[in-house]
């Protein structure tokens, strides 16, 4: 009952047919196109603005990147300079500028073989067969040192005889003759005794000595032997040599 009452009430209000053609309605279609045009213009403006902003941001970014790179290279330059300065100071402090390169000089060495003797001093072959000298000179039984340093020196003397002379002492002495000292300086000395017991029998004995010594430029090294007549001058049995450490 209430619904049926309400509906006629509404119709009674809009009962006038002139109401359906209200004058406000026609004005709307005129307004819509201008609004649309304005909207597209605004969108265009917005897009342009955004593009300009994006461009500005890109330019700023590029500037920033350039600035950072510049700063980095400058920092690197400064660090390298500081490192160089620190190295320089370190070198000054420690006393050497650059790492010491290994010497490219040829190491002095020599192997001399038995040849003969002059009085008690043995004479040697320095070029024959296995004999050689490198960086040192041989002259009149002596090896002449060319460069100061540590040297390993060795000498082997082969004594032999057909008869045994009892209690005959066999001696070899390795010595240096130098301008720094008035007398011969003995470096090594070897004595052999009781190498034979029975009279009139063949005997042989090796006398070997070796050591490390500091030698100076210009030093002469010789080997003296007590009984040169008992020395075998076979190149593989009696020899004398050295090499620089
Ligand atoms: C070595 O022998 C020579 C003779 O040939 C002699 O003049 C010299 O004093 C000797 N030196 C040593 C250290 O025995
Ligand atoms: C001795 O050393 C010098 C350089 O110090 C060199 O020129 C010379 O050839 C050397 N002598 C020998 C015999 O090797």
UniProtKB/TrEMBL annotation:
PROSITE patterns for this protein: THD_2
Subcellular location(s) per record: Cell membrane; Cytoplasmic vesicle lumen; Lysosome lumen; Membrane
Record key words, sorted: Apoptosis, Cell membrane, Cytokine, Cytoplasmic vesicle, Disulfide bond, Glycoprotein, Lysosome, Membrane, Nucleus, Repressor, Secreted, Signal-anchor, Transcription, Transcription regulation, Transmembrane, Transmembrane helix, Ubl conjugation
Classification lineage: Eukaryota, Metazoa, Chordata, Craniata, Vertebrata
Pfam families according to UniProt: TNF
Listed transmembrane segments: 45-69
Coiled-coil region: none
Keyword Magnesium: no
CDD domains: TNF
SUPFAM superfamilies, A to Z: TNF-like (SSF49842)
Domain THD: 108-245
Function, as annotated: Cytoplasmic form induces gene transcription inhibition.
GO BP terms: extrinsic apoptotic signaling pathway via death domain receptors; immune response; positive regulation of canonical NF-kappaB signal transduction
Domain of life where this protein originates: Eukaryota
Gene Ontology cellular component annotations, sorted alphabetically: cytoplasmic vesicle lumen; extracellular space; lysosomal lumen; nucleus; plasma membrane
Designated gene of the protein: faslgc
Membrane-protein topology: Single-pass membrane protein; Single-pass type II membrane protein
Protein name per Swiss-Prot or TrEMBL: Tumor necrosis factor ligand superfamily member 6
Main location as per UniProt: membrane
Family: Belongs to the tumor necrosis factor family.
